[in-house]
Design brief:
Rossmann fold; two-stranded antiparallel sheet; alpha/beta; 40% helix
């Protein structure tokens, strides 16, 4: 009997308590400490996190900041940088990704640790971090489907070459081709007798391919999605008398208002059931005076819909990234 077969037999015949099982699961798939506003819920490999919100609502900024925290090393030459030291695969469907913004946020994080004097060290950490970032741009659903079909082989190749597989998969934005695919009913997804390209079929294949990918390469998936805001939602937001400080529980009246649907869901049910976590971000009418700033910054508000957390987080976006407002 081979070593793998013997290990599998021991696993099948083994017995463990619930505490032992949870300890083993948490050790093999630990939670990731991501920056605000993704810090409220414990996120692990295999989770699918959807950052939903109207445009503009800083969704891409949140995604880029999460990428920065992922690719920064935890520690290098005895210096603690506070990153995760993991690789990121970024799939851009909006085709508006600005790599200079990623580099700018990375530099800010590195300078906070090393200071402006350590130029050589700063550049070394910057290059080391950027090697952990891979970028793919797709212009339509055909390119997205082709990319997902080849990701398994690409990840295997990366793992063999440098010993690092994929840890984070980021997609910006999953609904980018929604209206084009919705209008397309006659384009085949292949040769004769194949399915026709439609929104439902595209999302079915996307979800199926992502499930297969996650079963072989456990990763944390974070996607952005533009929302269609319903009128009741805008009215509800405007009627807020105050925005609570970050981490402040809702009042009973605010919580009652949040039970009302304030954006219209347009993604098919197969996608909705695939998502394990959902956070809603929106702009507010508030402007915040930040320290060492001569101008007031526009404020945004986030809330967790899945799981439902009765908290609002208010944040602003600056050159160095996203900052919570206390």
């Amino acid at each position: 009997m081979s070593g793998e077969a013997a290990a599998a037999k021991r696993w099948i015949n083994g017995d463990e308590s619930a505490q032992q099982m949870l300890g083993r699961a948490l050790t093999s798939r630990p939670s990731f400490a991501l920056p605000p506003p993704l810090h409220r819920a414990p996120l692990r490999a295999g989770n699918v996190v959807e950052i939903a919100g109207p445009s503009p609502s800083a969704k891409t900024q949140i995604l880029v900041q999460a990428a920065v925290s992922c690719i920064l090393p935890k520690e290098r030459n005895g210096v603690h940088y506070g990153g995760l030291g993991h690789s990121v695969l970024y799939i851009d469907l909006d085709c508006r990704f600005d790599v200079s913004r990623l580099v700018e946020m990375l530099r800010h994080r590195i300078v906070q640790v090393n200071g402006c004097s350590s130029t050589a060290d700063n550049e070394e950490i910057l290059k080391l971090s950027m090697r952990q970032f891979s970028y793919i741009r797709c212009y339509d659903s055909f390119e997205l489907l082709a990319t997902l079909k080849t990701l398994h082989h690409w990840l295997e190749k990366e793992k063999k070459s440098d010993g690092i597989g994929g840890h984070f998969l980021m997609i910006d934005s999953i609904g980018a081709f929604h209206w084009v695919d919705r209008a397309s009913t006659s384009l085949p997804l292949g040769g004769k007798n194949r399915k026709c390209l439609s929104l439902q079929n595209v999302l079915e294949v996307v979800v199926e391919d992502l499930r297969k990918l996650l079963s072989v390469h456990p990763m944390l998936v974070i996607v952005t999605k533009a929302t269609i805001v319903a009128p009741t939602g805008n009215e509800f937001r405007r009627n807020y008398k105050r925005w609570p400080s970050s981490g402040t529980p809702y009042t009973s009246s605010e919580l009652e208002g949040l039970q009302k649907p304030y954006f219209r869901e347009y993604m098919p049910s197969i996608w909705q059931s695939f998502v394990t976590h959902r956070i809603l971000v929106q702009g507010s009418d508030d402007h915040i005076a930040m320290p060492k700033s001569q101008e007031n910054d526009a404020a945004y508000v986030s809330e967790w819909l899945l799981p439902r957390l009765n908290f609002l987080d208010k944040f602003v976006v600056r050159d160095a990234g996203v900052f919570l407002v206390s």
